Amino acid sequence: MVVRTRFAPSPTGYLHVGGARTALFSWLYARHHNGQFVLRIEDTDRQRSTQEFVQAILDGMTWLGLKSDHEPIFQSDRFGRYSEVVEQLLAEKKAYRCYCSLEELDRVRDGQRQKGLKPRYNRRCRDTVDCDYPERPSVIRFKNPLVGSVYFKDQVRGEINISNDELDDLVIARSDGTPTYNFTVVVDDLDMDITHVIRGDDHLNNTPRQINIFEALGETPPSYAHLPMIVGADGQRLSKRHGAVSVLQYRDDGFLPESLINYLVRLGWSHGDQEIFSIDEMIDTFDLSEVNRASAAFDTAKLRWLNQYYIKESDNSRLALMLAHRLKKFGVKFENGPDLIEIVDALRERAQTIEEMAEMSHYFFHDFDEYEEGAAKKHLRLVAMPMLEDLLAGLQKLTNWYPAAIHGVIIATAESHGVKLGKIAQPLRVAVSGTAATPPIDKTVALIGRAKTLDRIERALRYISARKSGDA
After folding, report:
1. Do 198 and 334 reside in the same domain of the chain?
2. 3-class SS at 199?
3. Rg of the chain over CA atoms, in angstroms?
4. Burial (0-12, 13-18, 19+ Cβ within 10 Å), 7
5. Would you name the residues annotated as active-site residues?
6. Last residue of a domain, one of 179, 203, 227
7. Are both 53 and 92 inside the same structural domain?
8. What is the CATH number of the domain that holds 50?
9. Residues 423 and 287 in one domain
10. Do residues 119 and 148 both lie within one domain?
């Protein structure tokens, strides 16, 4: 048997982390078993499905590297097939036309609620013989078995047994002829030879209904695995305040796809104590038996830590291209500034995202308007003025503008004033960058360049003088 899994998002919204994890687990399971992975776009909801959401799903999957083994399949292209199977079920008396109006159905449900019963369709039209009123709209309902139960062994949740008494005769085709979710899923999984359905546990209630349709068609259902919910740190359902944004938003915020993939695979799955996984390691070790039944908590801080790890491990040239994209977004003209690869090398130990790296690097390319208030108050003081003046003179004489030479001038100035390196490095750092946190000061000064560095030290001296006279 060739293992075939699928990811079947509905294009009524963007691809979020929950869907991305489902896609990843399905993709990994197929790859682990040398099988095939299918992407199916469930776009039968014509009112809510949009091309924008379709494209966002495709772009998100591409960015994450979750490549399908076939071109994406769209349910909207398969309406003819669904109609064919509906007619088959009608002909075999496994489905029937229901002419009950919405008002009638509401009255029935209200009566059931008043009696403390579970509201459901009362099967009024189920056994009506030759009930055919062409002038009246009708839906088509599946004849769910009246006795027995649905048993299946979920690969995550274990044995599940649902009595058919709990299931009603669900609508498989609306009055306008459009098929419904639970029906189309079965037809698609059947036609596409899907062997394993891996999805969120919010679909667990749908599974017995779908299994009954499979059996009505004389087919064996696939194996199911229902993944636990992803929640926020507070235990509540994941929302935007927890970080549940579009996958592409993480891309735009400067996360690397491998960091998000690594983070998602650990949401509800583990392999010993290992935290860092390459794609090959994920494929080799992934197994549904190691998926936890408990909900997984989304931790943005851990995702950022992972992203920083991958930034440190990534190629400088690749990061430089990403940095260039974000600098353009900020309107920073970097073409005549220092080499972006050198900027990346200087900042990669400090930035948790490429977005942060871009924000940290502005002073390398253009002058800043103000100093950080706390940094200036602490370091641009009168006591620093003589040291900065001597440092300025030493740097003005420097002919080789390289970190080692710059470092020598800074050390010599500190020694001549009898202070430790930090006592001069911090005022210099604030003077040239506007902030107290930069890469090593000699490397920072080298990247800023000779002209900008000298100008900024002179500006800092004027600032200190103004503070002395009370004008700052």
Report:
1. no
2. strand
3. 32
4. buried
5. 240
6. 227
7. no
8. 3.40.50.620
9. no
10. yes
CB count within 10 Å of CB 173 equals: 25
Joined together, the tokens standing for residue 263 give: 């983070």
pTM of the model as a whole: 0.90
Are residues 222 and 82 located together in one domain of the fold?
A: yes
Per-residue pLDDT of the chain (472 residues; tens, 9 = 90+): 899 999 999 998 899 999 999 999 999 999 999 999 999 999 988 778 889 999 999 999 999 999 999 999 999 999 999 999 999 999 999 999 999 888 888 887 888 788 877 888 888 888 875 555 667 789 999 999 999 999 999 999 999 999 999 999 999 999 999 999 999 999 999 999 999 999 999 999 999 999 999 999 999 999 999 999 998 877 777 765 555 578 999 999 999 999 999 999 999 999 989 999 999 999 999 999 999 999 988 999 999 999 999 999 999 999 999 999 999 988 999 988 999 999 999 999 999 999 999 999 999 999 999 999 999 999 999 999 999 999 999 999 998 999 999 999 999 999 999 999 999 999 999 999 999 999 999 999 999 999 999 999 999 999 999 887 665 4
Q: Which domain holds residue 66?
A: 4-75+230-301
User: Which tokens in the block code for residue 360?
Assistant: 């940290």
Strand 139-142 to 95-98 pairing: antiparallel
